C-alpha cells in the first residue's frame, strides 16, 4: 500500500473526511459549476470577490477523495489572495500534478505551493489528474467570469 | 482451395474438458504481472482478453492471406474472401440464424444499432410513430434512437424498472400501442447483469405489430443465443466482448426486413452497378457493407467463435453461473457494500458501491493490487439516475475468471475499507 500512501496522503484523507469551506456562500459574487460526467465528480464553487481579491470562497459537491480534498485544500490556499495570485497558484498546481506547464502559464515566478504539495503523488496516477484539477479549472473559469460548466475529462 | 481452420486439432482435444483455471494458459495477457501482482481481470463487460488462437489467426491473416475481399481475381484475394465469408457462416451457426445473408459485419454493437435506427426508421416509420427502449439501456441503445426521433418526429418511450432492476412488465404492456414500431432492449444489462426475457418481449411486441431489436453485447459472450428461438427481428453484438478482436460487430436481421431496408452507407462493395443516372445496390448482406471491411479482425473473430464452440456455450453459461453465485455470496458478506439490483437471473456484471468510498478511489486501490474493475457510469447514465448514484464500481466475469479472482477482489475491498478507515 506504499504507493497508495503517495497518492492518498494523510492531509488528503483528512480533507476528504472533513472538507473545509464546504457550504453555500450566500454573498458570492461568482458561482461556477465543475462536472466530470465520466467519474461523476461534481462541485459548485462560490467566490466573493472584492477589490480584485478573493475575500471568501466555499464549495459544495460530491466526488472522489482526490477531487473533494483538492477542492477543500484549494479554498484554503486561495482565500485572501488576489486574482493574479490565485491564477499563479492554478498554474503551479497544474504543473505539480501533470509535470507539464499549464497551457496558459505565464513566465512569472511560481508561488510557493505550501500545503498543495501533498498532491504531488497524483502525477504517478495519470487517470486521477482530472480529479485533482477539476476544482482548479472551475476556479480559473470563475475568475475569468466564464459561465459554462467546467470539465477536465 | 485450401481450407482455413483457425484452431488446430491439438487445441480441440485439450479444450474438451475444461475449467476456468485450465483456460487461463490460453490467454497470454493473463500471464503478465500488473503492478507487480497477478492480474485479476474483472472488466470483461468492457472488453475481454484474447486467447492465443485469436492472436495467431490475426497474425496468420496478415502473413499469409492479406488481400482485399470480394473483388480480386488473384489467389490471395480468393483466400481472404473465403476466410472472411467463413466467419459469416460461423456467426450464422453460432446464433442460429436461418441464412448467412442475415449476418452483416459492422464496427461493433453501436454501429449495428445505428444501422437499424437509421435504415429501419427510413423505411418503416413516420412522424408520430413510437420506439420503446428501457431504463437499463447502454447509451448505444439510447442515443441512436434519440437522434432518429429528433430527425423524423418519432417518440421515444422508456420502460421503467422494478425495484429489483427488472423490466416493469405492466408498464411495458401499457406502453405498447398501435403506434409502436420498434422495441429496442438489452438482452443483458451491462450494469445490473439483469437478463431480460427477450422471447417474451418479442411475443408481446409482435402481437402489437412492432419489431424488436436486441442489444446482445453482454449476452453473446455468456449465454447460448438462438435468434430464431428468441424470434427477435434484429440482434446486435460485438466480437471484442466475446474474446475476439476489436473493431468487429455483427448485426443479425431477418432477411425480409433487411431486404426492405435501404442501405445505411454508400460506397464500394454495397453496389451492383453504378452509373451517374442510377445505382443499383448489391444483394444481402453486402448491401449493408460499404467500403473495405475490417477483414483481418473478421477473419480472426472466427477463431474466437471456434474457441467458444469448443468450450460449448451451455458449459460457458454453467461455469459462469457458478462463479456468479460465488461472487454474490462473497460480496454480500462485506460490511457496507451495496450490490445494485436483485434480478432473478443475473449474468456477467455486478455493480456495487462501498459505503464511504467513492468508486473511483476504490478502482485505484484495487488497481494497485492488480485487480481490474470498471468504475463510473458505465455508459448508462439514465440507469445511474434511477439508482440515485453518480457512479458505481463494476466487476464483470469472463470464462477465465476463477474463485481466486473473486477472493482477490474481496480482499481488496477489505483493504479499501481499512485504508479509508471506515
Give a structural overview.
The complex is a heterodimer of chains A (153) and B (422). Chain A has five helices and three strands; from the N terminus they run ααβββααα. Chain A is an alpha+beta fold and 153 residues long. Chain A has a single domain (2-144), classed as Alpha-Beta Complex (Sufe protein. Chain: A), CATH 3.90.1010. In chain A, strands 1-2-3 form a three-stranded antiparallel β-sheet, with helices on one face. In chain A, helix 2 packs across helix 3 (65-78) and helix 3 (65-78) runs parallel beside helix 5 (129-144). The longest helix of chain A has 16 residues, at 83-98. Chain A is globular. The model of chain A has no long low-confidence stretch (mean pLDDT 91). Chain B has 422 residues and is an alpha/beta fold. Chain B folds into two domains: 40-46 and 312-419, Alpha-Beta Complex (Aspartate Aminotransferase, domain 1), CATH 3.90.1150.10; 65-309, Aspartate Aminotransferase, domain 2. Chain B is 40% helix and 15% strand. Chain B has helices spanning 9-14, 20-23, 52-65, 75-94, 109-124, 143-152, 169-175, 198-207, 227-230, 255-260, 295-311, 313-332, 359-367, 381-387, 403-419, and strands at 40-41, 103-106, 130-134, 155-159, 180-186, 211-215, 234-238, 249-253, 271-274, 279-281, 337-339, 349-354, 371-372, 374-376, 392-396. A seven-stranded mixed β-sheet of chain B has the order 2-8-7-6-5-3-4, with helices on both faces. A four-stranded antiparallel β-sheet of chain B has the order 11-12-15-14, with helices on one face. The longest helix of chain B has 20 residues, at 75-94. Chain B is globular, with a radius of gyration of 22 Å. The termini of chain B are far apart. At the A-B interface, helix 1 of A face helix 13 of B.
